[in-house]
Amino acid sequence: MNRPLRCVALIGIAAALGQTVPARAAVYSNGTATAQMRVQLTILPGCTVAASPMTFNAVQGSATGPVASTSSLTVVCTASTGYNIGLNAGTVPNSTETNRLLAGTLTGNTTTIPFGLFQDANYATPWGNTQGSNTLGDSGTGVMKTYTVYGQATLSATMPAPDVYSSTVTATVYF
């Protein structure tokens, strides 16, 4: 089969299958006209935050004094976006940012254990949720940044009942 007949045959098969064959563009030489097309993308300031759990090691017997643990926060903010990271008081009633409480989870256990969250390993800078006072400030780079949260629970001379003591603290990024 010669070439023109093969083309006609392929066009006929494509048409029978419901396929369209693109038309070839013609060549024109009468002149040209142009227009500019603006292309634009707007990036708005934005941040995301994620938190890993903080789990203190289990305590047995008559331990007293501080028990330490850490957690991490990961933040991604658009480049050059200033932000503050805050941690609230938690979900246990009567908790404050400077005196957070862990509460027992067993029915009838009303005991609480005080704990603090800090921005530094020396437990010198409490981590709160008041911008300009006790939040941690930084600026976005467009990539993930990781921050360590240092926790310290305080056990008194009177050991609380065996239980799992907990609270849920909310991390907020203000930008």
Automatic annotation (TrEMBL):
Which Pfam families does the protein's record reference?
SCPU
Q: Which UniProt keywords apply?
A: Signal
The family database entries (SMART domains) matched by this protein are listed as: SCPU (SM00972)
> Where would one find the signal peptide in this protein?
1-25
| Domain Spore coat protein U/FanG residues, every copy | 33-172
Name the source's superkingdom.
Bacteria
UniProt protein name: Spore coat protein U/FanG domain-containing protein
